[in-house]
Amino acid sequence: MIVTIDGVAASGKSSVSSGVAQALGVPYVSSGLLYRAVTLLGLNAGADLADPSALLPLLSAVRLEPLASGNRVWNADHDLTADLHSTRVDGGVSTVAALPEIREWVDAQLRALPAPLVAEGRDMGTNVFPHAPHKFYLTASPRVRAERRARERPEDIPAIEAALTERDRQDTTQSAPAPDARIIDTGPLTLQGVIDTILNDLR
Ligand SMILES: Nc1ncnc2c1ncn2[C@@H]1O[C@H](COP(=O)(O)OP(=O)(O)OP(=O)(O)O)[C@@H](O)[C@H]1O
Ligand SMILES: Nc1ccn([C@H]2C[C@H](O)[C@@H](COP(=O)(O)O)O2)c(=O)n1
Fold first, then answer.
1. Torsional sign, CA 14, 177, 31, 150
2. In angstroms, how far is the first alpha carbon of the chain from the final one?
3. How far is the CA of 150 from the centre of ligand 2 (A)?
4. Which atom of ligand 1 is nearest to the CA of 151?
């Protein structure tokens, strides 16, 4: 069984997916972390983030570890995870995610993982796992998402809201909900409330 949980930036995808996966006793995979890892490696190498031929050679030893408690991304024996949610990576990741060659690489990593699993991102229900039987799409207003994210970042709420809105704009192409996804506005719900909504639907 595959459950897909897509949604806009900072809508709660990874927290919700982790909770759902732990309740089901299956792994979850965060596709955004792979796009973030490509971005980090590109920035560290001084590569042009719009040039797939400069990025693909950096990826031969990149591996996603789909732990239910929180995914980790490795480059050989170096754990990249702690550096993936920085403002620097946020600023470049949409450029990288727009490259078809990089999307193909990410999709191949995800499709190689054995089911059952919970997959989260933007196009899990539309493109990567279109035949998944259970699909969800999380939304919340930019202000609500910025207020939540401000607890994890040094920037103030208006700056975070502006950056989220810009990233939503840049990611529009791959971020449409699947026609058969259940759309959940997480604004009025607690994190546990969103997890319970999905688990009730699955039951
Ligand atoms: N329903 C909720 N109520 C309150 N806080 C929430 C809720 N859902 C998520 N959060 C909090 O919002 C923040 C962003 O959540 P999370 O990182 O899971 O989002 P995301 O969609 O995976 O983000 P990104 O797109 O940047 O990877 C976290 O601090 C999380 O704990
Ligand atoms: N399936 C996916 C997952 C992610 N992206 C892009 C869009 C985001 O800006 C970036 C980081 O993802 P996040 O950590 O916010 O989930 O990666 C995508 O295009 N497709």
1. negative
2. 13
3. 19
4. 29
CA gap 57, 18 in Å, rounded:
31
Domain ranges for the chain = 2-202
Distance 97 CA to ligand 1 centre (A): 20
The CATH code belonging to domain 2-202 is 3.40.50.300
For the CA of 127, the closest atom of ligand 2 is 1
Q: What is the pLDDT of residues 144-179, one digit of tens each?
A: 999 999 988 888 999 999 999 998 998 999 899 999
Task: Encode pLDDT of 63-120 as tens digits.
Answer: 999 987 789 999 999 999 999 999 899 999 999 999 999 999 999 999 999 999 999 9
Q: Return the residue matching tokens 């999905």.
A: 198
Instruction: Report the predicted TM-score, pTM, of the whole model to 2 decimal places.
Output: 0.95
